[in-house]
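User: I'm writing a short report section on ligand binding and want a predicted complex to refer to. Could you take this sequence and NAP and write out the structure as tokens? A short remark afterwards would be nice.
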Amino acid sequence: MKYRRLGRTNWSVSEVGYGMWGLAGWTGSDEREVMRALQRAVDLGCNFFDTAWAYGDGKSEAMLGRIRRDNAGRHLYIATKIPPKNRRWPSRRDYTLDDCFPPDHITEYVHRSLDNLGAETIDLIQFHTWEDSWVDDDRWYRQLDELRRQGLIRAIGISLNRWEPWNGVRAVNSGLIDTVQVIYNIFDQNPEDELFPACQSRDVGVIARVPFDEGTLTGALTRDSRWPADDWRSTYFVPENLNASLARVDRLKPLVPPGMTMPEMALRFILSHPAVSTTIPGMRTVQHVESNLAASDAGPLPAALRAQLRAHRWDRTPMPWSQ
Ligand SMILES: NC(=O)c1ccc[n+]([C@@H]2O[C@H](COP(=O)([O-])OP(=O)(O)OC[C@H]3O[C@@H](n4cnc5c(N)ncnc54)[C@H](OP(=O)(O)O)[C@@H]3O)[C@@H](O)[C@H]2O)c1
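Assistant: Sure. The structure tokens for the complex follow:
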């Protein structure tokens, strides 16, 4: 495993981190296998774990707490998120700070997450939705800064809404935040336009999330893939999305070099960008942990393949189903 600096936090984080949403929120999770997968990741050098209160209403945080206690001799970085008070994902332009992250709500959820994690400090606290207009209402910053002074949190981050990388550039340039979490993958390359240069110039760490486009970029989904009604993916992979995505995946398949898998190509594409500090694939099995973490040792993709993948950029705008 290779490590990168997480921007101005100066922490050395594994360039493949652990996305902890699916293991507590998607159907088909086997808790014993998930705990084995988390331990395998630790053993292979993963030290950055992205969770959220909203992932199973604290369940994912509690699992991270268990794996940290089982590995007390190592520092495993906790990145968690405060849910918006109005419980609406994504935020919309007319949502105010009071709708989503009023100061008392911020404090309440930092304490709730600390309880779930069984920790005294959260390394990185992130807002689970973000509107760049909130930069002008700095009550959120003053509240978090106070919690930082109390030793309850160490660093501050924002997690950007799907397909809105522009909606965090002001926050990055404000100098108030330490990290930004954004969707970046072979399809969603547009953080490269404005957001990544801003992060590089402000020394803001970049957490590249959804490396597999929620699954299509693993090559494992088909036009017949279906999910139970209570699984979030049943509302995201509506035919309009699933079919268009898989048509693009079909065009990518011939580019996967012999001896490489599509998930490996997807992760190494992301790690080829120097602005990225870590990428956080969602993993629930030991097998996925082993194959995904190996992408770090394999290094960046060859330049010729990267150039070919540029043509597969897909600029999308939020849709009613895209959440
Ligand atoms: N708003 C936010 O802040 C936000 C939103 C979304 C995600 N996130 C964070 O980003 C993380 C990653 O995103 P994600 O989990 O939604 O999507 P993702 O990482 O793009 O895709 C996860 C899917 O890929 C599959 N997979 C993983 N490794 C694989 C491999 N080697 N071979 C084949 N399939 C593989 C998983 O399989 P299984 O189904 O078998 O597990 C799962 O279905 C989340 O876990 C969460 O921490 C944050």
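A remark for your report: The domain at 3-310 is CATH 3.20.20.100 (TIM Barrel). The longest helix spans residues 103-117.
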